[in-house]
Amino acid sequence: MLKKFNLLHSILGIFFKNRPYDEKSIKISDQDYFVRAIILDDIKDLLSIEREVYAGELPWTKTAFLVELQSSDPHLYLLIQKEGKTIGFIGCRIFGKDAHITNVAVATQHQGSGIGSFLIREVLEFAKSNECDTISLEVRISNKNAQRVYRQLGFVSNTIKPRYYTEDNEDALEMILFLKEE
User: Fold this and answer.
1) Beta partners for 80?
2) 150, 165, 174, 182: which is the annotated catalytic residue?
3) 138 given a catalytic annotation
4) Residues of the chain with pLDDT > 70: what percent?
5) What is the residue extent of each domain of the chain?
6) Fewest 10 Å CB contacts: which of 67, 89, 110, 174?
7) For residue range 67-116, what is the model confidence (pLDDT) as tens digits?
8) Helices (H), the chain
9) CA gap 59, 103 in Å, rounded
């Protein structure tokens, strides 16, 4: 069975344009940042940002990051740095014609500066290059600030997923951005 899966994965993989991300320096609101693909050595920084943003919780463990970063499935995991310090990151993987944002976090003191929006736009370009029809994500029902940002970027509410977050049983709102009009 595993051999059949690996063969199917190899065949389907040729349809995706999972090329390396070109690191770059950028400006957001007259501030200088550096963006690049996440590597295994970055996981400690990602966990630190998660602890800060999620009040000590770790929605993603070191193992979860390891599995995603080493996956052969089409994916994009980026971090953004200011003065050499990681201050935010985003993860996305392709499922069929959907680019699913798995995780996005920006250090508290840098929230509201456009960093999250920039990272989502990078995922948007990745999704388009992989001929996706949609980008999807889940967000806590209580996280109105994130929902507002997603709506400004064109996401719409889809469904509520009851008790999605296991640590406190909070519901998630699934949001979708449609890339192709029919």
Assistant:
1) 35, 88
2) 150
3) yes
4) 88
5) 22-178
6) 67
7) 888 888 899 999 999 999 999 999 999 999 999 999 999 999 999 999 99
8) 2-13, 43-53, 62-69, 115-129, 144-152
9) 9
66 within 8 A of 39, measured Cβ to Cβ? no
How confident is the model over 33-53, as pLDDT tens digits? 999 999 999 999 999 999 898
Rounded alpha-carbon distances, angstroms, from residue 64 to 39, 75, 101, 155: 14, 14, 14, 26
Q: By C-alpha distance, which of 17, 65, 64, 76 is closest to 41?
A: 65
Contact between 140 and 165 under an 8 Å Cβ cutoff? The reply is yes
3-state class percentages of the chain: helix first, strand second, coil last, to nearest 5: 35, 35, 30
CATH number of 22-178: 3.40.630.30
Which range scores top for mean pLDDT: 11-20, 47-56, 168-177? 168-177
Q: How far apart are CA 25 and CA 138, in angstroms?
A: 29
Q: Is 182 a catalytic residue?
A: no
Question: For strand 156-165 and strand 134-140, is the pairing parallel, antiparallel, or unpaired?
Answer: unpaired
Active-site option among 54, 138, 165, 170? 138
